Structure prediction request, 471 residues.
Amino acid sequence: MKNLKKIPPVDEIMLDEDIISLVRRYNRNYVVISLRQVLDEVRTELKLNDEELDREVIRSMVKQRLLREIRKNSKGTLQRVINATGVVLHTNLGRAPLGSRALEYMQDMGKHYNNLEMNLSKGERGSRYVHVEELLVQITGAEAALVVNNNAAAVMLGLNTMAAGREVIVSRGQLIEIGGAFRIPEVMKMSGATLIEVGTTNKTYISDYEAAINENTALLFAAHTSNYKIVGFSEEVKLEEMVKLGKEKNLPSMQDLGSGILCDLSSWGLRDEPTVQQCVNAGADIITFSGDKLLGGPQAGIIVGKKNYIEAMKKNQLTRALRVDKLIISALEGTLLEYLCGIPERNIPVLQMLTINMDELEAKAIKLSSVLQDKFSQSDKIESIKYVQVEDMVGGGAYPTYRIPGFGVEIKLRENNLEWISQELRLMEPALLTRRQEDKMLISVRTLLAGDEEKLVEMLYEVLEKKGENL
Ligand SMILES: *Cc1c(COP(=O)(O)O)cnc(C)c1O
Prediction:
């Protein structure tokens, strides 16, 4: 109890030289509030502690904690993560990391004024929707384009504009749910359109669509089953067939493509997913896809297709609520320019990771494992470190059944403390996310970005050799 009397009062701490210098950098009120919190905590702890402490010890304890607390709270909660999982489009890790052209554009437009809604040649008000449109038209071959907040918004806007109050025909095999509670039936309901399911889970024929068409039908809709595959005794209607039927019946066709692939990746083993250009050529009236999946850009919902429908969408009030801001537009322009006049498989990180050749990947894994072996040569915490073949994934719902052969490093620990170590690594800054295979830690090198290797080695050392000292 004697300890409690030695806790310095707020006023006294605030006069401390270190704290005065803290107040120069942080809001005074914020420092006082944090200090009160720290004093409460210290008081509670000291009540439980019978050992008598020096006044100076208590004072320095309060100060240390205050500094730590202030530093911790003066950062946002969003923080960097090193992705060693080998899942390239990790939905929980922000999907696509941006390329440098996108980042430069974003910084330039964010820092300065810009012509977001200004027609500079006429000197009058312009439209924000013109910016990426021309690029998208040139790259995809579509007549027109529009960008909204994300693909869920794009689908909703398309359905609302083209089919509110009327019927939309969808195959039962395509009533998809995407992570984060995007469900076709629910989105349909929100859009005001009525869902008409046809066919069965595994088989849908063009005759099923045809039989469902009536005077209230507004749209034929196909959703790419991006995160699962129906295999075996199954049949889906091809987009071309659906478009042909639509033309005969004077109905538009819409394709929710999910991951918008803009360049052919088949020579890297990524086959069987249609590109946006293929869907345009198949004659779909509207195609929607995400900006931050295989396209490798910022979160956005991209709509390309026939001009009359896109124009109607631009006039829809919903568009105002779903619109993208200047930072997204600039990041998307920077990314799309890479497709038009750059080298996407080299400069768009997602594509670079997916198309990197095996020799290069293997060399990266060999190098990382040898650096780790050196660093931990004296360690008694580790049983073995070796480079191994791993199976990586595209992620983001794309190519759900496809495993990409890759390389990585496998670490086997002496003690059974992988759970604890993985957690410690997640709590560091940046955080490190690894994979686990039985009792071993796996580090896939495919998803490591420039500079990640060096950091990762230090982080493992910190956790195993310093924090793990008492294990
Ligand atoms: C990912 C996906 C969506 C949702 O896209 P977001 O950009 O995450 O809103 C919708 N439909 C399909 C087929 C998808 O793969």
Remarks:
- The chain has 20 helices and 18 strands.
- The pocket of pyridoxal-5'-phosphate is lined by residues 150-152, 176, 178, 182, 223-224, 226, 256, 258-259, 290, 301, 397 (CB under 6 Å).
- The chain has a mean pLDDT of 93.
- The radius of gyration is 28 Å.
